[in-house]
Write a structure and sequence with these properties.
This protein is α/β, with parallel strands linked by helices. It contains 15 helices and 17 strands.
Length: about 450
């Protein structure tokens, strides 16, 4: 029985009472949180395999990155300052050059950045050329297992109105999804999970959406979909489905409900938001990517005031610049305040909830993660509050949301296992991954004919 103690830190529990314990102790036993208490109480004796002194730090639940695309990691600095309609072809041309080994390196790099930034749970929305079948998805899952992140693969697919190399027939989609579930679903290692992801509302047929709902119900999988991120969605949906509404497409396909997450929703009507609320469908906001791609204003206050479940994500690094959920929290609050012209529109406490317990709830994981409570898994991060970037701290939540960044994360535990210690990854060779990534990125840019975009 392995026991770990985290002592002397300021515990930001995110439990139902939202307790903050100024000097506390967390005891983790075999990956599960056993006790949460003031430092002077209770578990003062007994053998611990590891004792982490968090003095001068905040201890909080690991952050939940509810939407990203890790296969964009190598193209991190390509395409900025482009409109979405130009940015996407640039990225597709670049990604098309990956070998299978480069794809794995790309995902490894993305996982490392997420862990180093304090994101212990990551939803990775991948859609790869159909000819690879499940090979690239298997590579991503293998990297996640090795590096120790809590990883949700949202397996993407399309069956119409997309580049031919990405199209799969409904029978192919079903067979390949069943293969993944057979290999990875229901395992004792519950850090790994799967979701269904019809990638774009116009690029999936009615048959494809019906298949999605049938498999979700039969296999117990959740559904993860892009929704109304730009004004360009509507005419494409009109062409494919005879009307312009994302929400109607999903509703008619049976793909709304408490097991569904919709990304974006910047261009949805009040009536559509009511449909989302009534079906208990969750929405994921990616404020930083929305800014950099010049997409619509995240509808944060409209969703929250309606009672829609909301989570936060970073989206892919190539449309964000990083995987820093601290930035996502700060930008989510700031954009909401601008939209409402009200400094109290969305509080720092609220966005911290969206990045922890509410993010976990939107993914159906709140019984396991999202708060520091006995019985939950030991997904915790320890954030330095003594640096010039954050000190002096008079309000720990304000410091975490408005001052701290991923660079301030000192230690990271997932399932009670230390994966980052003193700011260094301990589950893989970070330097080797970075070296492979640099070589691969240059090769892919050259092969894609994008050298005119390089500034080295």
């Amino acid at each position: 029985m392995e026991r770990i103690a985290i002592i002397n830190g300021c515990l930001v529990t995110m439990d139902p009472a939202r307790r903050i314990i100024p000097a506390g102790r967390v005891v983790i036993e075999d990956g599960t949180i056993r006790s949460v208490e003031p430092a002077g109480a209770g578990e003062s004796r007994g053998h611990f395999a590891d004792v982490i002194d968090a003095r001068g730090c905040a201890v909080l639940p690991g952050l939940v990155n509810a939407h990203t695309h890790l296969y964009m990691s190598l193209g991190r600095t390509l395409g900025f300052d482009q409109p979405f309609e130009e940015w996407l072809p640039t990225q597709k041309k670049f990604i098309a050059q990956y070998t299978e080994e480069e794809f794995a390196t790309c995902v490894e790099l993305g996982i490392i950045e997420n862990l180093r930034s304090g994101n212990t749970c990551v939803v990775d929305n991948l859609a790869v050329p159909a000819a690879s079948e499940n090979r690239l998805y298997e590579a991503a899952l293998a990297s996640a297992r090795q590096l120790g992140v809590r990883y949700v693969l949202a397996r993407g697919y399309t069956d119409q109105f997309n580049a031919p190399e990405y199209l799969e027939t409904p029978p192919q989609i079903e067979a390949r999804l069943r293969q993944l579930v057979k290999a990875h679903g229901g395992r004792a290692d519950d850090r790994i999970d799967l979701m269904l992801s019809p990638m774009l509302p116009w690029a999936v047929s009615r048959e494809g959406f019906a298949l999605t709902r049938r498999l979700a119900t039969e296999l117990g999988l959740r559904i993860h979909m892009h929704t109304a991120e730009t004004q360009g969605y509507a005419p494409l949906i009109q062409k494919a489905h005879g009307h312009p509404s994302n929400i109607r497409v999903y509703q008619e396909g049976g793909c709304l409900g408490p097991d569904v997450q919709l990304l974006g929703c910047a261009f949805v009507s009040p009536d559509e938001i009511e449909t989302v609320r009534a079906t208990q469908t969750a929405v994921i906001l990616d404020p930083t990517a929305s800014m950099y791609l010049g997409m619509g204003m995240p509808p944060s206050t409209r969703l929250l005031s309606a009672g829609v479940p909301v989570a936060l994500g970073t989206n892919g690094v190539a449309c964000n610049g990083s995987q820093d959920m601290f930035e996502s929290m700060k930008n989510a609050a700031g954009l909401a305040k601008i939209a409402e012209r009200n400094g109290a529109a969305v509080t720092q406490q609220r966005v911290l909830e969206l990045a922890t317990i509410e993010g976990a709830r939107a993914l159906g994981l709140d019984a396991r993660i999202g708060s520091i409570e006995p019985g939950k898994r030991g997904d915790l991060i320890i954030v330095d509050l003594t640096s010039p970037y954050a000190a002096p701290v008079l309000n720990v939540v304000a410091a975490l949301v408005s001052s701290c960044k991923g660079r301030d994360v000192r230690h990271v535990l997932v399932d009670g296992r230390v994966v980052v210690r003193d700011g260094k990854l301990v589950t893989g060779d970070e330097a080797a991954v970075l070296g492979r990534a640099k070589v691969a990125a240059l090769r892919c840019a050259e092969k894609a004919g994008l050298t005119d975009r390089l500034a080295l």
